[in-house]
Design brief:
This protein has 60 residues and is an all-alpha fold. It has one domain (4-56). Helices cover 87% and strands 0% of the residues. It contains 2 helices and no strands. Helix 1 runs antiparallel to helix 2.
């Protein structure tokens, strides 16, 4: 089975999601700077926890 087509679609979806997140963060940063920074810090902490958990083998 050829995995190129689903992979291309998945890459397009991920690109659109990342673009949407950056656009929303930019709008939030312009109008509600403190909240946008708080959300960015929270997302970074959650991402760091997930990466550290996977490296230590805590998460499946």
């Amino acid at each position: 089975m050829n995995d190129a087509a689903p992979r291309t679609r998945l890459n397009a979806i991920l690109l659109l999601l990342a673009t949407n997140a950056l656009l929303l963060f930019g709008i939030g940063f312009r109008y509600a700077r403190e909240i946008a920074v708080g959300v960015a810090v929270l997302a970074a902490l959650v991402g760091y926890g997930i990466v550290r958990g996977r490296r230590s083998g805590a998460l499946p």
